[in-house]
Design brief:
There is one protein chain. The chain has one domain: 3-Layer(aba) Sandwich (Rossmann fold). Helices cover about 40% and strands about 15% of the residues. It has 10 helices and 12 strands. α1 crosses α7, α2 packs parallel to α4 and α4 packs parallel to α5. The termini are far apart. The mean pLDDT is about 95.
């Protein structure tokens, strides 16, 4: 296959490049390919002539989006609209990466996760702009796949995992980590694997959740890192979201249920197993 990856130099994009190294991969990223400029991406896509477009380009800085909503919507909504229009015109299969932040994080009592059928109600500019991008895809290219991921880490970072390893490797007081926000820690490799699976199923379209199995808090994730890396001597202390205020509100629970993948017979790896595999390759010296 000939696969074009927008945002191909980002963390997920780099993992995708490695995962699809046996195919022909075209990296579409700034400055050569600006998704907010439709004429430029139309020309770029036309020259590349891809069979598949994986749309990973986005403004993902949650607090940065809150501070600059105009730019967030320009990239996450308008940019995604442009990618959808050009991909549809070329009849290239489109898989667009979205986020758990499209949900409020406030689940009804008795529920533990969000399914593909739940109605998004984002509480942040980031989540709202990404959901607006999803809606553009549904309107302009309904045969495309919207792939929601969350709590992502991958080779080279940046990610929470890399930040924790750096902090816990240094000297100092115990590190406070939030223990009342819950989600699915997910490796970029696991996402790349599920994209490969989806590409093997021509009939799959619509919204698909693709996070690792199992639910954790940020404190749980940091604690698991310490178990996997005995060299991390600095202590951890749990704290509340209220003790760690941020410009954009974080969802209390953004865990995603993988109904579509399970119907297709595909099971994502458990988050602890995926993290252990990642640590072995990413932090060999530790």
């Amino acid at each position: 296959m000939k696969i074009l990856i927008t945002g191909g130099n980002g963390m997920l994009g780099r993992t995708l490049q490695e995962s699809f190294k046996d195919d022909e991969v075209i990296v579409a990223d700034l400055p050569e390919c600006d998704i907010t400029d439709r004429s430029r991406i139309a020309a770029f896509f036309a020259e590349a002539d891809p069979d598949v477009v994986i749309h990973a380009a986005a403004m993902t800085n949650v607090d940065g989006c809150e501070a600059n909503s105009e730019l967030a919507y320009k990239i996450n909504e308008e940019g995604t609209r442009n990618v959808a229009i050009v991909s549809a015109a070329m009849n290239a299969r489109l898989i667009a990466i979205s986020t758990d932040y499209v949900f409020s994080g406030e689940l009804d009592e008795g529920r533990e996760s969000w399914s593909e059928e739940d109605t998004p109600r984002p509480r942040t500019v980031y989540g709202a702009s990404k959901f607006a991008g999803e809606e553009m895809i549904r309107a302009l290219y309904p045969e495309a796949v919207v792939l929601r991921v969350a709590w992502l880490y991958g080779a080279g970072g940046p990610s929470f995992v890399h930040t924790m390893v750096k902090l816990l490797s240094s000297e100092g007081e115990a590190v406070k980590v939030v223990n009342d926000q819950f989600g699915n820690p997910t490796s970029a490799k696991a996402v790349a694997d599920v994209i490969k699976f989806i590409l093997s199923k021509p009939s799959v379209e619509g919204t698909v959740h693709a996070t690792c199995e199992g639910v954790a808090s940020w404190y749980d994730l940091a604690g698991e890192l310490k178990k996997l890396m005995p060299s991390l001597k600095r202590e951890l202390v749990p704290c509340t979201t209220a003790e760690f205020p941020r410009p954009a509100p974080r969802p209390a629970n953004s865990a995603l249920e993988k109904r579509v993948l399970k119907l297709l017979g595909y099971t994502m790896s458990n988050w602890r197993e995926a993290l252990a595999d990642f640590v072995l390759t990413e932090f060999k010296s530790n």
